[in-house]
Amino acid sequence: MEIEGAAQANLVTDPPRPAAWLLLVALLGGNIALALGPWFVREADTGPVSAGFWRLFLALPFLVMLARANGQRLGGMGAKTLGLVALGAVTFALDLASWHIGIGMTRLGNATLFGNAGSIVLLFWGFIAARMLPRGLEWLAIAFALVGAAILMGRSLEISTATLIGDLFCLAAGLLYAVYLLTLQGARGQFGSWSLLVWVSLFGCPVLLGLAVLLGEPVWPTDWTPVIGLFIGSQLIGQGLMVFSLKYFPPLVVGLALLTQPAVASAYGWLAFGETLSALDIVGMVLVGAALAVSRAR
Predict the structure, then answer these.
(1) Torsion sign across C-alpha atoms 99, 216, 53, 43
(2) What is the C-alpha separation between 140 and 134, in angstroms, rounded?
(3) What is d(CA 67, CA 294) in angstroms, rounded to the nearest whole number?
(4) Closest by alpha carbon to 247, among 56, 1, 2, 18?
(5) Which residues, including other chains, have CB under 8 Å from residue 267's CB and lie 6 or more apart?
(6) Domain map (residue ranges) of the chain
(7) Residues 34, 5, 249, CA angle at the centre, nearest 5°?
């Protein structure tokens, strides 16, 4: 779910290409930072939707500074564009809400994989929009995604119905994120990623806050460490490193780097929360991960 948004960077100037090792560190570091987001969501003493609100709200002034530093304008949107951005922001807020709820109900590896399923959804959408059938590796990606998801959700159902519902929440988040990306497709040609994130956050914060209140969640944290860690790790460091590095790599490399996220999430899920993976779980993750890599290359 996180990586696609960072990949839409539209910077005004192209600085000299940094050293290869620095780019690799940035790419992997961004994925690792994003993978730690679910941990902070679980540790927050607010509700999961409230944590999403704080993630966007606390990051707003920094997003404004990043937009200005990269020469991206914040104003000048027409009414139609502003309406599309508002619609995209609502979709993004629902995506974050669904994903954060799912994080608390399923295993962290599953949540990270299914939350990033937007690229697979976009692969399907591409076939529908072009009115064409998949070819070659695309069929393989679809088969891997379906079989891997079936394995992981079947294993979740063996644990409890709650973990299966958590998987479905995270899958819904992946679908909503794809809709969000498609909604803002036109606006990206006119505005940079950071300026769009400012507007998305402005429209998305009230939606998340309203949902949290309707769900009866605690909004104001008593321990600020998790929500601060969430906005710094996911919104600033994770997104920032991805925006910095992604334009230098081919999509297949980006897709492969994405696979570090479920690996990291599964590792700390085991260490911190006692979430164990069977051999069948690993097979399911490998299949879905392979589908993600192929879909991003496509």
Answers:
(1) negative
(2) 9
(3) 31
(4) 18
(5) none
(6) 2-6+17-297
(7) 80
Give the residue carrying structure tokens 């069977």.
278
**pLDDT digit string (tens) for 3-58?**
545 544 444 445 577 777 788 888 889 889 989 999 999 999 999 999 999 999 99
How far apart are the C-alpha atoms of 31 and 267, rounded to whole Å? 14
pLDDT tens for each residue of 156-168? 888 889 999 999 9
As a whole number of angstroms, the distance between CA 149 and CA 295 comes to 15
Q: Which pLDDT does position 134 carry in this prediction?
A: 72
Q: Determine the Cα–Cα distance for residues 201 and 208; give it in Å rounded to an integer.
A: 10
Q: Is 70 helix (H, G, I), strand (E, B) or coil?
A: coil
For residues 168 and 48, is the Cβ–Cβ distance under 8 A? Answer: no
Side chain identity at residue 261, one-letter code: Q
| Helices within the chain (DSSP H only) | 2-6, 20-35, 37-43, 48-69, 79-103, 108-115, 118-130, 137-159, 161-183, 193-214, 225-230, 239-245, 251-258, 260-273, 279-297
Q: What is the pLDDT of residue 251?
A: 66
